């Protein structure tokens, strides 16, 4: 039995007060619930406030990005050790916004994945195809290549003890959610790629998840939770999604 995980990616929104407030509301309503693992991904500068708001609860905190380097002259970067020091247990790697807007290659993503595991963080590896790639029927190849690059760098077993989030780029922030069948098709291909070592790996779906679409997605065989953007910024909506993963 795989324990479901629902993560909220807050992206570049809010301020210290709104971040603490949102985390405090979630802590009050989900702080001792072990049925679904909840992980919050605030901006770096709100990590410590969010960590304080969820102290003494089961809610975990993660960062949205990590440097592939462990320390040194990398102005503006944040290392894995710094994230651990802030109380993080998770980190997103390879989000499509990082890949597209900040030119992160499969190789860079693999190095970041390794940097995360080297300090004991659990990476959530984000993969997914663009609209054009889907229209050209390249979806499964693109996703397989994104995962293969990380397997090449850290080995299959290390990929299998992380979390993988399938986020079709055309569904992110667009209100257009993948159908449960579309999502399951990709999730089952990922499961097959991981083979025997990946039977317990948590595979999340992300891309315009709302409470109204989550129920059907979460009942698919290889979908073990969600990575939620916009809808995670509102406590009640996010809690409704988390409850649907139970
Ligand atoms: P939305 O839920 O806003 O589409 O964002 C998804 C996402 O990018 C989560 O990482």
Verbal overview:
It is globular and about 45 Å long. It has a single domain (5-244), classed as TIM Barrel, CATH 3.20.20. It has helices spanning 16-30, 47-53, 80-85, 96-101, 106-118, 131-135, 139-154, 156-160, 180-194, 211-218, 235-244; strands at residues 5-9, 37-41, 60-63, 90-93, 122-127, 163-166, 202-206, 225-228. Helix 5 packs across helix 7 (139-154), helix 7 (139-154) packs parallel to helix 9 and helix 10 (211-218) runs parallel beside helix 11. Helices cover 43% and strands 15% of the residues. The mean pLDDT is 97. 46% of the residues are buried. By secondary structure, it is an alpha/beta fold. The chain is built from eleven helices and eight strands. The chain has an eight-stranded parallel beta barrel, surrounded by six helices.
Highest CATH level, the class: Alpha Beta
CA-atom Rg in angstroms: 17 Å
Instruction: Let me know the average pLDDT.
Output: 97
> Any guess at the CATH architecture?
Alpha-Beta Barrel
As for the CATH topology, it is: TIM Barrel
The low-confidence parts are none
Order of helices and strands: EHEHEHEHHEHHHEHEHEH
Number of domains: 1
Helix content: 40-55%
State the separation between the terminal residues, measured CA to CA: 12 Å
What fraction of residues sit in β-strands? 15-25%
In summary, what is this structure?
This protein is of the alpha/beta class. The protein has helices at residues 16-30, 47-53, 80-85, 96-101, 106-118, 131-135, 139-154, 156-160, 180-194, 211-218, 235-244, and strands at 5-9, 37-41, 60-63, 90-93, 122-127, 163-166, 202-206, 225-228. The longest helix has 16 residues, at 139-154.
């Amino acid at each position: 039995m795989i324990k479901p995980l629902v993560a909220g990616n807050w992206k570049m929104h809010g301020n210290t007060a709104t971040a603490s407030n949102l985390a405090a509301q979630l802590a009050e309503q989900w702080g001792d619930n072990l049925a679904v693992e909840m992980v919050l991904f605030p901006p770096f500068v709100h990590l410590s406030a969010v960590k304080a708001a969820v102290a003494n609860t089961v809610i975990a905190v993660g960062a949205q990005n990590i440097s592939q380097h462990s320390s040194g002259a990398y102005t503006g970067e944040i290392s894995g050790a710094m994230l651990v020091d802030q109380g993080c247990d998770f980190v997103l790697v390879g989000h499509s916004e990082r890949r597209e807007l900040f030119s992160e290659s499969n190789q860079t993503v693999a190095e970041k994945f390794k940097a995360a595991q080297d300090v004991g963080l659990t990476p959530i590896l984000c993969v997914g195809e663009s609209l054009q790639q889907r229209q050209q029927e390249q979806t499964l190849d693109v996703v397989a290549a994104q995962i293969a690059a990380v397997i090449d760098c850290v080995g299959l077993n290390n990929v299998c003890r992380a979390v993988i989030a399938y986020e079709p780029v055309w569904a992110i922030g667009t209100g257009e959610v993948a159908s449960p069948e579309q999502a399951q098709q990709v999730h089952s291909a990922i499961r097959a790629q991981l083979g025997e070592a990946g039977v317990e790996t948590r595979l999340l779906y992300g891309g315009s998840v709302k409470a109204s679409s989550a129920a059907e997605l979460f009942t698919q065989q290889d979908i073990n939770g969600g990575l939620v953007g916009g809808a995670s910024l509102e406590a009640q909506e996010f809690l409704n999604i988390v409850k649907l993963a139970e």
